[in-house]
Every structure is written in structure tokens, then in C-alpha cells.
Write a structure and sequence with these properties.
The structure holds two protein chains of two kinds.
Chain A (H helix, E strand, L loop, with lengths): L8 H7 L4 H5 L13 H30 L5 H22 L26 H4 L8 H4 L9 H25 L5 H22 L3
Helix pairs in contact in A: 3-4, 3-7, 4-8, 7-8
Chain B lengths: L5 H23 L4 H27 L20 H22 L5 H10 L1 H11 L13
Helix pairs in contact in B: 1-2, 1-3, 3-4, 3-5
The chains are: A mainly alpha, B mainly alpha.
Chain lengths: 200, 141
């Protein structure tokens, strides 16, 4: 049986043509899970923010369906919500984590939980993870009827505007492909702001 | 991934703006009322963006690409419907070109590209009558 000790290992490596630095470069595989890279942290923050926005829309569409003054309102909100779900799917698809690692988020796309309440502590501490003003407010706000409808739309527009701004902040420091995804989603959010203006 | 040259990305955006300036000249002729006013405003916005890009490219010590005398239209334009479709098509092209700027290494240019693509994305949604989930991206999986 061959036993390598601290003194014999360099000799063995030299005999095999390897330098000791070849064997010991890189992270120690026994030192535990490495901390996530910058892009992963930023992506997790984007996922959390998208989940919060979806939660806001889910509540808003329920409110709109219950009695909106605008017949086109529920249909438009459903359409915008569907696009946010597409954003979330694409963002989640870009996130590759090692087996067993937590994605850092807990909400499902269709969750009806209170907006902004689903982000993990790790995600909210990440760059650009601060919840948008609209995402932290109750979407139902106030009494029912037309006034509440306008309030919901105003909050959605505020949240969309904040989401677009956050996307711009995130894209500066990440991989170009991820930056383009953030930019595209931010542009979509900007179109949502304009679309919601029709309901305001 | 090979880094995208700032000049080539800006030149592509300028080429798209040049095409939009030409295309709105065609589309505007088939529009009336508020739609024509919108087309005129969009033509003005694209002309200003073209000048901005030309200045940026010149500052990078490159010669801005010149506009072509004629552009082949993607489909025949003969009424208001096809004119609106052309406007949406042009805006999609400009949006896509600015998204190319987002891939460069320079952070300020990235942010410029990301901001600049929002206006054509909004205009495309206006002319199309609906929003798109991923403006500028060719396809979603």
C-alpha cells in the first residue's frame, strides 16, 4: 500500500511530472459550499423582486375582477401578469445552483401571499434587491369601487417603474448575456408603465 | 463570450435609427390624424437619437455609418394597417440594436443602451397595440 505523507507527496508529484501547486490550486473541496458568485447573487435578487411584483399583480387582478370600472382592466392586468411570469421563468432558468442549494426565494408564481413578504433574508440583502415601493404596499388599499381601482393601478405603475430602474442598476456589473436579459425585462416594465396609464 | 466592440454596437444602433428615420417617412404618408402626429413625433425622436449616436461614435474616433439612400421595406405598405405594422417593425429593430449596446464591457454604455431601448420598446407597443415580454430579444425559450 502506498501512503503519501506531507513529506512524500511532493516527491510523488515531482516523479509524476506535476508541481504541488497543480494539486492544491483552487478551492478546498472539503471546506464547505463556496459563497455564490456575484451574478448569482444579483440574479437571486432579481428573482425575488419579480416574485414580489407578481404577487402585487395577483392581488390586483383579483381586485379588478371583483369590480373594476374599466372593462378592459382585468384583461390588461392578466396580460401583464402573464408577461411577468414569463420574466420569472426566464430568470429562474438562468439560475444554476449546485444540488441541494436553496434558490433563496420561496414564492411560487401564482402565490397570493402578501406582496414583498416572500423574499429570503439573503436575497433582500443583495444588491438591487430592495423592494419597490409598490411591491411593499397592500394592493387592495382602501375601500372598494372605482377609487380603489385607480389606487391599484397607481401602485402597479409605481412598482413597474421601480422594477425598470432596479433592472438598470443590476445590469452594469453582470455577464453581458444576463445584462441583456435584465435590460429587456426593464424595457418590458417600461412598456407596462405606459400600458397601465390607459387604466389610470 | 467575445466582448462586443463599443463602436460596432453603436454603429449598429445608428444603422437602425437611420432605417427608422427613412421608414417613418414612408409610414407617415399612410397615416392620418393622431396616428400621423405620433409618427411625426417618432420620426423626430429617431432623428435626434441618430444625431446623438453619430456624436458618440465620432468621440470614439470612428466615422458614423451613413444612411442609405433607399431601404428595402420588409413588406408592402399601402394603408394605415401596414403603416402601423411597419412602425412596430422599425421600433423592434431599434430596440434590438440598442440591446446590442448592453453587451459591451463599458458600464456607462451598457446603461445608455438599456435606457435607450425603452423608448422604442414603448413605441413598438403603441403601434402594435400590445406589449412584448422580452423587447429586443429575438426569442424566448
Amino acid at each position: 500500500m502506498l501512503v503519501a505523507s506531507a513529506t512524500t507527496l511532493p516527491l510523488l508529484l515531482a516523479a509524476s511530472g506535476c508541481r504541488s501547486s497543480d494539486a492544491f490550486d483552487g478551492p478546498d473541496p472539503l471546506a464547505g459550499r463556496p459563497s455564490p458568485g456575484h451574478d448569482v447573487v444579483v440574479l437571486q435578487a432579481a428573482i425575488s423582486a419579480e416574485e414580489a411584483l407578481i404577487s402585487l399583480y395577483v392581488t390586483a387582478t383579483a381586485t379588478a375582477a371583483a369590480g373594476s370600472a374599466s372593462a378592459a382592466g382585468p384583461e390588461l392586468l392578466d396580460s401583464l401578469l402573464a408577461q411577468h411570469r414569463q420574466h420569472l421563468a426566464r430568470l429562474r432558468g438562468a439560475l444554476v445552483l449546485p444540488p441541494g442549494a436553496s434558490p433563496g426565494t420561496t414564492a411560487s408564481p401564482g402565490t397570493t401571499a402578501s406582496p414583498g413578504a416572500t423574499a429570503s433574508p439573503g436575497a433582500t440583502a443583495s444588491p438591487g434587491a430592495t423592494a419597490s415601493p409598490g411591491a411593499t404596499a397592500s394592493a387592495g388599499g382602501g375601500a372598494g369601487g372605482q377609487g380603489a381601482g385607480r389606487g391599484v393601478v397607481a401602485r402597479l405603475r409605481t412598482a413597474e417603474r421601480a422594477s425598470a430602474a432596479a433592472g438598470l442598476r443590476r445590469l452594469a456589473t453582470v455577464d453581458p448575456a444576463l445584462a441583456q436579459l435584465f435590460a429587456s425585462i426593464a424595457a418590458c416594465d417600461a412598456t407596462h408603465v405606459a400600458a397601465l396609464a390607459a387604466l389610470a | 463570450m467575445t466582448a462586443i466592440s463599443a463602436v460596432s454596437a453603436l454603429q449598429a444602433a445608428l444603422a437602425a435609427e437611420n432605417a427608422a428615420v427613412y421608414g417613418y417617412g414612408v409610414a407617415g404618408a399612410y397615416l392620418a390624424g393622431s396616428k400621423q402626429a405620433a409618427a411625426i413625433q417618432d420620426w423626430t425622436d429617431h432623428s435626434e437619437a441618430r444625431d446623438t449616436l453619430s456624436a458618440m461614435i465620432t468621440r470614439l474616433r470612428a466615422a458614423p455609418v451613413a444612411a442609405a439612400a433607399f431601404y428595402a421595406l420588409p413588406f408592402a405598405v399601402h394603408d394605415s394597417r401596414t403603416a402601423r405594422a411597419l412602425a412596430a417593425y422599425l421600433e423592434d429593430g431599434v430596440t434590438r440594436a440598442y440591446l446590442g449596446v448592453v453587451a459591451v464591457d463599458d458600464q456607462r454604455l451598457r446603461t445608455f443602451g438599456a435606457l435607450a431601448m425603452q423608448a422604442p420598446a414603448r413605441r413598438a407597443a403603441y403601434w402594435r397595440g400590445s406589449t412584448q415580454p422580452f423587447p429586443g430579444l429575438v426569442s424566448a425559450p
